[in-house]
Amino acid sequence: MNRQRLLIALLLSLTACTPPSQRFASDAGRRETGVPALHAVHDEQLRELMSRMNSLLQERFMTEPELDVERRRHARHIAATAQNLSQTIDAILTTLPTLQLSAGEQTAFLALANKLREQSQNLQDQAGQNRMDAIPGTLEQISTTCTSCHALFRKL
Question: Does this model's pTM top 0.70?
Fold first, then answer.
């Protein structure tokens, strides 16, 4: 009996001397996959979200050279579209004989087509010279010319 008591006392004292993480192997496994591990996963997700937010903010606040590059790219796109508009005017003019317009209507149609051609050329020049402030006014003029022509000559 004394021997058993001595053995139990020895086991209890050895258990008390070992660090808590080594006492039970199953506890150590739970601590690694429990709340601290979940916190690490959330922390990683938060870091990823913050990185994406930072990227989005950097896109929003472009540097001046980056803005210039975007403006030039946009201006080239406007110039190419204005050139396509000029080519479309040629196609519109080819439909004139099929429209069966009176002499006065033909004169008005040609005047509006020529006005549209001038405006599209003006737009192309403004975009080519990177005069972006002038472009909205020219686009408004083009829209007015198109609307006028459609109101006069398109059958609804």
Answer: no
